[in-house]
Specification:
It is a single chain. The protein is an alpha/beta fold. The chain has one domain: Rossmann fold (3-Layer(aba) Sandwich). It contains eight helices and eight strands; from the N terminus they run E-H-E-H-E-H-E-H-E-H-E-H-H-H-E-E. Strands 3-2-1-4-5-6-7-8 form an eight-stranded mixed beta sheet, sandwiched between helices. Strand 1, helix 1 and strand 2 form a beta-alpha-beta unit. It is globular and about 50 Å long. The termini are far apart.
Protein backbone atom coordinates (compact mmCIF):
# COMPACT_ATOMS: atom_id res chain seq x y z
CA UNK A 1 0.00 0.00 0.00
CA UNK A 2 1.28 3.43 -0.94
CA UNK A 3 0.46 5.58 2.08
CA UNK A 4 0.44 9.05 0.50
CA UNK A 5 -3.05 10.55 0.91
CA UNK A 6 -4.36 7.38 2.56
CA UNK A 7 -6.30 7.61 5.83
CA UNK A 8 -5.41 5.76 9.01
CA UNK A 9 -7.35 5.39 12.26
CA UNK A 10 -5.33 4.50 15.34
CA UNK A 11 -6.82 3.71 18.74
CA UNK A 12 -4.90 4.66 21.87
CA UNK A 13 -2.91 7.14 19.79
CA UNK A 14 -2.40 10.08 22.14
CA UNK A 15 0.86 8.70 23.52
CA UNK A 16 3.19 5.71 23.52
CA UNK A 17 3.05 3.25 20.64
CA UNK A 18 -0.10 4.72 19.13
CA UNK A 19 1.48 8.15 18.87
CA UNK A 20 4.56 6.63 17.23
CA UNK A 21 2.35 4.79 14.71
CA UNK A 22 0.44 7.98 13.91
CA UNK A 23 3.63 9.91 13.31
CA UNK A 24 5.00 7.13 11.11
CA UNK A 25 1.92 7.44 8.87
CA UNK A 26 2.20 11.23 8.79
CA UNK A 27 5.82 10.95 7.68
CA UNK A 28 4.54 8.87 4.76
CA UNK A 29 2.13 11.71 3.86
CA UNK A 30 -0.97 9.89 5.06
CA UNK A 31 -3.77 11.46 7.11
CA UNK A 32 -4.46 10.19 10.60
CA UNK A 33 -7.31 10.05 13.10
CA UNK A 34 -6.04 9.99 16.68
CA UNK A 35 -8.53 8.06 18.78
CA UNK A 36 -8.08 8.02 22.55
CA UNK A 37 -10.01 8.16 25.81
CA UNK A 38 -7.53 10.75 27.15
CA UNK A 39 -8.95 14.01 25.84
CA UNK A 40 -6.27 16.30 27.24
CA UNK A 41 -3.34 14.30 25.90
CA UNK A 42 -5.13 13.72 22.60
CA UNK A 43 -5.48 17.45 22.00
CA UNK A 44 -1.84 18.03 22.91
CA UNK A 45 -0.72 15.35 20.45
CA UNK A 46 -2.90 16.76 17.68
CA UNK A 47 -1.49 20.27 18.23
CA UNK A 48 2.03 18.85 18.14
CA UNK A 49 1.35 17.07 14.85
CA UNK A 50 -0.36 20.15 13.39
CA UNK A 51 2.77 22.20 14.04
CA UNK A 52 5.08 19.51 12.69
CA UNK A 53 3.14 18.28 9.65
CA UNK A 54 0.68 21.05 8.93
CA UNK A 55 -3.00 21.59 9.80
CA UNK A 56 -5.64 19.36 8.27
CA UNK A 57 -3.56 16.20 8.31
CA UNK A 58 -4.87 14.88 11.62
CA UNK A 59 -8.07 14.75 13.64
CA UNK A 60 -8.55 13.87 17.28
CA UNK A 61 -11.69 12.01 18.28
CA UNK A 62 -12.21 11.14 21.94
CA UNK A 63 -13.50 7.60 22.41
CA UNK A 64 -13.86 4.89 25.01
CA UNK A 65 -13.26 1.87 22.79
CA UNK A 66 -15.35 -0.34 25.08
CA UNK A 67 -18.43 1.70 24.09
CA UNK A 68 -19.87 0.34 20.85
CA UNK A 69 -21.76 3.55 20.16
CA UNK A 70 -18.66 5.71 20.63
CA UNK A 71 -16.58 3.37 18.50
CA UNK A 72 -19.14 3.42 15.67
CA UNK A 73 -19.16 7.21 15.89
CA UNK A 74 -15.38 7.33 15.43
CA UNK A 75 -15.58 5.40 12.17
CA UNK A 76 -18.43 7.56 10.89
CA UNK A 77 -16.59 10.77 11.75
CA UNK A 78 -13.38 9.50 10.17
CA UNK A 79 -15.10 8.92 6.83
CA UNK A 80 -16.99 12.22 7.11
CA UNK A 81 -13.75 14.10 7.79
CA UNK A 82 -11.41 12.49 5.28
CA UNK A 83 -13.75 10.71 2.86
CA UNK A 84 -12.25 7.26 3.26
CA UNK A 85 -10.57 4.73 5.58
CA UNK A 86 -7.58 2.68 4.49
CA UNK A 87 -5.78 1.61 7.65
CA UNK A 88 -6.98 0.63 11.11
CA UNK A 89 -4.52 0.06 13.91
CA UNK A 90 -6.05 -1.52 17.00
CA UNK A 91 -3.48 -0.28 19.50
CA UNK A 92 -5.51 0.64 22.60
CA UNK A 93 -4.60 -1.62 25.49
CA UNK A 94 -4.39 -1.75 29.27
CA UNK A 95 -2.83 -4.03 31.89
CA UNK A 96 -5.10 -4.35 34.89
CA UNK A 97 -5.29 -7.76 36.51
CA UNK A 98 -7.48 -6.45 39.31
CA UNK A 99 -10.13 -5.21 36.87
CA UNK A 100 -9.60 -8.15 34.57
CA UNK A 101 -12.97 -7.83 32.85
CA UNK A 102 -11.99 -4.35 31.68
CA UNK A 103 -8.67 -5.67 30.39
CA UNK A 104 -10.48 -8.20 28.24
CA UNK A 105 -12.98 -5.54 27.10
CA UNK A 106 -10.27 -3.10 25.98
CA UNK A 107 -7.62 -5.50 24.69
CA UNK A 108 -9.80 -8.03 22.91
CA UNK A 109 -13.51 -7.24 22.69
CA UNK A 110 -13.01 -3.64 21.51
CA UNK A 111 -10.37 -4.82 19.04
CA UNK A 112 -12.83 -7.31 17.56
CA UNK A 113 -15.57 -4.70 17.35
CA UNK A 114 -13.29 -2.15 15.68
CA UNK A 115 -12.05 -4.74 13.20
CA UNK A 116 -15.61 -5.57 12.16
CA UNK A 117 -16.46 -1.88 11.81
CA UNK A 118 -13.38 -1.38 9.64
CA UNK A 119 -14.40 -4.30 7.46
CA UNK A 120 -17.81 -2.69 6.97
CA UNK A 121 -16.02 0.26 5.33
CA UNK A 122 -13.21 -1.60 3.55
CA UNK A 123 -14.50 -4.93 2.19
CA UNK A 124 -14.17 -5.10 -1.59
CA UNK A 125 -16.88 -7.76 -1.78
CA UNK A 126 -19.29 -5.18 -0.34
CA UNK A 127 -18.28 -2.18 -2.44
CA UNK A 128 -15.36 -1.11 -0.27
CA UNK A 129 -11.90 -0.18 -1.56
CA UNK A 130 -9.85 -2.62 0.49
CA UNK A 131 -7.40 -1.75 3.22
CA UNK A 132 -5.28 -3.01 6.06
CA UNK A 133 -5.79 -3.78 9.75
CA UNK A 134 -2.90 -4.07 12.19
CA UNK A 135 -3.69 -5.54 15.59
CA UNK A 136 -1.19 -4.84 18.34
CA UNK A 137 -0.57 -7.97 20.37
CA UNK A 138 2.60 -8.68 22.36
CA UNK A 139 5.30 -11.27 22.92
CA UNK A 140 2.97 -12.17 25.80
CA UNK A 141 0.88 -13.79 23.10
CA UNK A 142 3.44 -16.60 23.00
CA UNK A 143 4.81 -16.79 26.53
CA UNK A 144 3.41 -17.26 30.05
CA UNK A 145 3.52 -14.20 32.30
CA UNK A 146 2.99 -14.85 36.03
CA UNK A 147 2.36 -11.16 36.75
CA UNK A 148 -0.36 -10.76 34.10
CA UNK A 149 -2.43 -13.88 33.29
CA UNK A 150 -5.44 -11.98 31.90
CA UNK A 151 -3.35 -9.53 29.87
CA UNK A 152 -1.55 -12.55 28.44
CA UNK A 153 -4.83 -14.28 27.65
CA UNK A 154 -6.06 -11.18 25.83
CA UNK A 155 -2.96 -11.10 23.64
CA UNK A 156 -3.26 -14.81 22.84
CA UNK A 157 -6.81 -14.00 21.79
CA UNK A 158 -5.64 -11.16 19.55
CA UNK A 159 -3.35 -13.53 17.68
CA UNK A 160 -6.04 -16.18 17.19
CA UNK A 161 -8.58 -13.62 16.03
CA UNK A 162 -6.14 -11.88 13.69
CA UNK A 163 -4.98 -15.04 11.94
CA UNK A 164 -8.53 -16.38 11.61
CA UNK A 165 -9.97 -13.14 10.26
CA UNK A 166 -7.08 -12.87 7.80
CA UNK A 167 -7.95 -16.35 6.53
CA UNK A 168 -11.61 -15.34 6.20
CA UNK A 169 -10.54 -12.27 4.22
CA UNK A 170 -8.45 -14.43 1.90
CA UNK A 171 -11.17 -16.98 1.32
CA UNK A 172 -13.91 -14.36 0.98
CA UNK A 173 -11.92 -11.98 -1.24
CA UNK A 174 -12.46 -9.09 1.17
CA UNK A 175 -9.42 -7.24 -0.16
CA UNK A 176 -8.39 -6.42 3.42
CA UNK A 177 -5.11 -7.57 4.93
CA UNK A 178 -5.10 -8.30 8.68
CA UNK A 179 -1.79 -8.69 10.52
CA UNK A 180 -0.53 -8.76 14.10
CA UNK A 181 2.35 -6.88 15.68
CA UNK A 182 4.04 -8.45 18.72
CA UNK A 183 6.68 -6.29 20.39
CA UNK A 184 8.66 -7.25 23.45
CA UNK A 185 8.96 -4.72 26.32
CA UNK A 186 8.55 -1.18 25.00
CA UNK A 187 9.28 2.13 26.69
CA UNK A 188 5.67 3.29 27.10
CA UNK A 189 3.46 4.22 30.08
CA UNK A 190 2.00 0.69 30.28
CA UNK A 191 5.34 -0.58 31.62
CA UNK A 192 4.76 1.39 34.80
CA UNK A 193 1.72 -0.74 35.65
CA UNK A 194 4.00 -3.43 37.07
CA UNK A 195 4.92 -1.06 39.91
CA UNK A 196 1.35 -0.71 41.18
CA UNK A 197 -0.62 -3.22 43.22
CA UNK A 198 -3.87 -1.64 42.02
CA UNK A 199 -2.96 -2.91 38.55
CA UNK A 200 -1.50 -6.34 39.28
CA UNK A 201 -3.69 -7.28 42.23
CA UNK A 202 -2.86 -10.76 43.53
CA UNK A 203 0.04 -11.01 41.09
CA UNK A 204 1.91 -7.97 42.44
CA UNK A 205 4.20 -10.41 44.27
CA UNK A 206 5.75 -11.29 40.89
CA UNK A 207 6.74 -7.73 39.93
CA UNK A 208 10.44 -8.37 40.58
CA UNK A 209 10.31 -11.35 38.23
CA UNK A 210 9.12 -9.23 35.32
CA UNK A 211 11.62 -6.48 36.17
CA UNK A 212 14.36 -9.10 35.90
CA UNK A 213 13.02 -10.13 32.50
CA UNK A 214 13.14 -6.51 31.38
CA UNK A 215 16.78 -6.34 32.45
CA UNK A 216 17.56 -9.54 30.56
CA UNK A 217 15.66 -8.85 27.34
CA UNK A 218 15.94 -5.06 27.27
CA UNK A 219 13.38 -2.38 26.46
CA UNK A 220 12.63 -1.20 22.93
CA UNK A 221 11.79 2.36 21.86
CA UNK A 222 8.42 3.08 20.18
CA UNK A 223 10.14 4.31 17.01
CA UNK A 224 11.52 0.79 16.41
CA UNK A 225 8.05 -0.73 16.70
CA UNK A 226 6.71 1.93 14.33
CA UNK A 227 9.12 0.70 11.65
CA UNK A 228 7.56 -2.74 11.89
CA UNK A 229 4.07 -1.27 11.82
CA UNK A 230 4.79 0.58 8.57
CA UNK A 231 6.17 -2.61 7.02
CA UNK A 232 2.96 -4.48 7.86
CA UNK A 233 0.90 -1.72 6.25
CA UNK A 234 3.00 -1.17 3.13
CA UNK A 235 3.82 -4.77 2.19
CA UNK A 236 0.84 -6.02 0.18
CA UNK A 237 2.08 -9.62 0.42
CA UNK A 238 1.46 -9.79 4.17
CA UNK A 239 -1.87 -11.16 5.36
CA UNK A 240 -2.22 -13.21 8.54
CA UNK A 241 1.38 -12.39 9.37
CA UNK A 242 2.55 -12.24 12.98
CA UNK A 243 5.50 -9.90 13.33
CA UNK A 244 7.72 -10.13 16.40
CA UNK A 245 10.09 -7.38 17.47
CA UNK A 246 12.75 -8.02 20.11
CA UNK A 247 16.05 -6.45 21.11
CA UNK A 248 18.02 -9.54 20.07
CA UNK A 249 16.39 -10.42 16.74
CA UNK A 250 14.84 -7.12 15.71
CA UNK A 251 11.94 -7.47 13.27
CA UNK A 252 11.11 -11.08 12.42
CA UNK A 253 8.06 -13.26 11.85
CA UNK A 254 6.54 -16.23 13.62
CA UNK A 255 6.69 -19.27 11.36
CA UNK A 256 3.60 -21.34 12.04
CA UNK A 257 3.29 -24.93 10.88
CA UNK A 258 1.60 -25.12 7.47
CA UNK A 259 -2.10 -25.93 7.51
CA UNK A 260 -2.88 -29.61 6.80
CA UNK A 261 -3.99 -30.37 3.27
CA UNK A 262 -7.73 -30.75 2.88
CA UNK A 263 -8.92 -34.32 2.56
Amino acid sequence: MILKNRVGLITGASQGLGKAFAEALLKKEAKVVICDINRAQGRVTKEEFDQRYGPGRTAFIACDVTSQSQLKDVFSKTVQKFGRLDVLCNNAGINNEKSWEKTISVNLMALIQASYLALDHMRCDRNGKGGCIVNVASMSGFLPAAHAPVYTASKHGVLGFTRSLAEASRLGNYGVRINALCPSFVNTPILDTINHEENLGNFFQFKDTVKHLMDVFGVLEPSVIAEGFVQLVEDDSLNGAVMKITTTKGIHFENYQPKPASQ
